[in-house]
Amino acid sequence: MCERGLIRVLIVDDHPIMVAGLSGEINAQKDMQVIAEAAGGEEAVRLFRLHRPDVTLMDIRMPGMNGIEAITTIHREYPRARVVVLSSSAGDIQVLRSFKAGAVGYLLKNLLRTELIETIRLVHAGHRKIPPEVAQQLAVHAAEDALTSRELEVLRGVVKGQSNKIIGSELNIAEHTVKNHIKNILFKLDADDRTGAAVIALRRGYIDL
Prior knowledge:
Radius of gyration: 19 Å
Oligomer: single chain
CATH architecture of the largest domain: 3-Layer(aba) Sandwich
Strand content: 5-15%
CATH topology of the largest domain: Rossmann fold
Helix content: 40-55%
Distance between the termini: 39 Å
Strand order of the largest sheet: 2-1-3-4-5
């Protein structure tokens, strides 16, 4: 049972050691309590429906339903849900996808020790939380043209190291069309070559391996 007045927290992460650390820190606070833990997106949605937590801490990279998909599902059913994304990446695209899905906070895992508790209290009080380095990434790329859905599909093939011919075959488009898409991708990502585009795509969160 959770005492009245406590901030009720749901933790979603597929790493038991991470969950144990988060739970210990949260439960040590007089005004907070972990009311459930999930190891994946599907379980997170089920437990959210069951417990209706005040704040949910959601990892992005999980097997099966990932964090973005889980946030989208939860937010569709519970628009007032307060979800904080936990991530190792400050990539602007991943951040944008998180907030578009319905997240209200973004917390880098290397800052958990110093900012976890403050972030939970802030989002519970109705505020948003974005670390300064993440906000800086968003500002740097704010004016850039977004990649189209087809360009993203081609980019996934580039990241996998596939040739233009193979990418075209998988997407059922001509090889010269793939070449044109790659030209646009290099321009939009300000990359010199395919390898550079792959590195940028992974760093910024366009592609999640």
